[in-house]
């Protein structure tokens, strides 16, 4: 896996070189889409660089907040008050998250054109990859595994069965803090807002979706509440960095050249005066 990680920068460098030499838009489009499968590689790589054992102290410190939300404040009861409707919606949102980054990139292409892809990818990858980089620093286990049989949902839906099946077979074991699911959900929402600022409804819908994912991580016992808060804050940081870079880029492109400052009303001429 480490060897594959080392090939990633080489892959992007090769794509950029081909784009410069051949000047083919298809190569540039390929470079936009390459990060989608690489997100999974970055996530799974946490298992290869994390500590050999998770630290049970993390879960012992964090479980009290979850039980306050779910039991003392009746969060679980409120979610299940309408029967399987809301639990199913939460589990479905969690399940759909896996496909969300490529689907959203395609919608950005469709609604804003390829020139908007850079803003989308920068914001998405900033929050997501920073979260993945922090995972090995906090070796912790999911609450459903740390406290088996405790604090679980009372209603078992079809979507939950699918989610648990996927997590048991494909999820990393290194850490759950910060929450990668929450970070991807909010980073995706912020990325849409950055790429398509004129379509505010789109960004708002994605924020609602991200909130559903965040609630589900705690209700479904996939994450502790602090995992989700950390994932949200990191994605918010990525959004702020992306907005700053976009502003600086806009200022740089709008700054007049030296010639324009010296002679703002004159067109540059190739001949000498008096010719």
What does the model show?
The longest helix has 30 residues, at 225-254. Residues 1-6 and 257-275 have low confidence and may be disordered. The protein is mostly helical and 275 residues long. The protein has helices at 2-22, 25-33, 35-44, 46-49, 56-72, 75-79, 85-96, 100-112, 117-134, 143-146, 158-170, 180-195, 200-219, 225-254, 258-262.
Binned, the helix content reads over 70%
Strand element count: 0
Q: What is the SS-derived class?
A: mainly alpha
- Contiguous uncertain segments of 5+ residues: 1-6, 257-275
N- to C-terminal distance: 67 Å
Number of DSSP helical runs: 15
Which band does the percent of strand residues land in?
under 5%
Overall pLDDT confidence: 84
What composes the largest sheet? none
Instruction: Kindly give the count of domains.
Output: 2
If you compute it from the alpha carbons, what radius of gyration comes out, rounded to the nearest whole angstrom? 23 Å
Topology as H/E string? HHHHHHHHHHHHHHH
Overall 3D geometry?
Answer: globular
List the helices and strands and how they pair.
Blueprint: H1 2-22, H2 25-33, H3 35-44, H4 46-49, H5 56-72, H6 75-79, H7 85-96, H8 100-112, H9 117-134, H10 143-146, H11 158-170, H12 180-195, H13 200-219, H14 225-254, H15 258-262
Helix pairs in contact: 1-2, 3-9, 7-11, 7-13, 8-9, 8-12, 9-12, 9-14, 12-13, 12-14
Quick recap of the structure?
With 275 residues, the protein is mainly α.
């Amino acid at each position: 896996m480490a060897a594959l990680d080392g090939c990633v920068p080489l892959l992007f460098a090769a794509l950029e070189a081909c784009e410069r030499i051949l000047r083919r838009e298809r190569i540039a489009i390929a470079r936009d889409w390459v990060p989608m499968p690489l997100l999974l590689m970055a996530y799974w790589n946490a298992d290869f660089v994390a500590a050999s054992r998770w630290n049970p102290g993390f879960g012992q410190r964090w479980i009290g907040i979850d039980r306050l939300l779910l039991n003392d404040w009746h969060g679980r009861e409120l979610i299940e008050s309408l029967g399987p409707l809301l639990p199913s919606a939460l589990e479905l949102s969690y399940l759909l998250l896996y496909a969300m980054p490529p689907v959203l990139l395609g919608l950005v292409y469709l609604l804003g054109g390829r020139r908007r892809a850079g803003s989308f990818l920068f914001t998405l990858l900033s929050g997501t990859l920073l979260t993945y980089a922090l995972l090995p620093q906090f070796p912790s286990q999911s609450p459903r595994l740390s406290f088996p049989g405790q604090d679980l949902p009372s209603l078992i839906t079809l979507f939950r069965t699918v989610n648990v099946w996927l997590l048991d077979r494909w999820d990393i074991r290194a850490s759950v803090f910060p929450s990668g699911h929450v970070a991807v959900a909010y980073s995706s929402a912020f990325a849409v807002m950055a790429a398509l600022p004129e379509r505010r409804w789109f960004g708002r819908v994605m924020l609602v979706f991200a909130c559903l994912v965040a609630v589900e991580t705690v209700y479904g016992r996939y994450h502790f509440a602090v995992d989700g808060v950390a994932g949200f804050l990191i994605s918010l940081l990525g959004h702020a960095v992306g907005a700053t870079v976009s502003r600086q880029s806009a200022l740089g492109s709008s700054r007049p050249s030296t010639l324009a400052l010296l002679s703002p009303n004159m067109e540059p001429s190739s001949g000498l005066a008096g010719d």
